[in-house]
Amino acid sequence: MKPTFNIIISFFIVLPVLLLSYQLGTPEAITTAHIAQYLGEPALKLTLAAASKDAETEKNLPIRKLEIPDFQSTANSALAWDFKENFYFFTKETNTARPIASLTKLISAAVVLDYVQPQENVVVSLEAVKKDGNSGNLREGEILTVKDLLAAALLESSNDAAYALAEHVGAKLSVNPESNTTPVRVFVKAMNQKFNDLGLVHTNFTDPAGLEDINSFSTAEDLAKFIKYFRTNPNYSLAWDILKLKNYHTESQNRIAAHDFKNTNPFLEEYAHVIGGKTGYTARALGNILLVVAGPNSSEIIYLILGADDRESETRKLVEWVAQAWTWPQEK
Q: Please, what are the domains in the chain?
């Protein structure tokens, strides 16, 4: 039993005795029955129960192996967090705003699933196909489902798929279709509103794919808290089902093209308990990666690397350090 818990318990055992001494006048007048009466008071019962619960929670948390040196990350920002217990294994520069590149597509996926159904058909526009960077090799005019395009965006990190989805959902959200505000801008506004509603105010998005990395940014802390929400909300289970896939095959509804989208997550097969992950890169953002892994005692750990020269190596070192530097109590 830890010293702090001993002090708490001692205080609440001694307190009734002192109160009884004051009330009854002499220590001789205090009996076991009197103490039992005070220990039976509801407020004291609640306080002792809360203290006991805190001690039990503390007992279930990982314990640091002090013989293992501290982790030294070369990434600009890094985080390892058991979000179920709100327990941080490692943090570095988690409140510094940085571009997050294609990790942005995770937020886009959430907004898409907020407003449309997975089996809705989407016509891919020329504007979407012309977007720079990673491409799902989409073709102008082909018709794919929302689910197909989510697979392209989350697995292949397709920018054209992210824009096709933004156009489709933004058009549905547009109050005045004849205004100068484009569907993509409407969609991006919904992305920012989602973060504001979650109280994540150190983030700003200017596009649905993470291409525009000058005025689009987040922090490791904001992003990790969003991932907790994204992971625990059943509305987004489809996204996590997709993120577990090695590849995804589909054909456009109008037979224009067939596609095989491959997962860019390098750890999907390397670690046995990977729940999902997403990579991202731009010249300004450098290498980014999000990885969610099932840990001991039903924990789920978010690993987040932002701004790394070698995102895979940095993530691998962090995952292995957590496994070596921390030990979990036996699960009951």
A: 3-60 (no CATH), 77-327 (3.40.710.10)
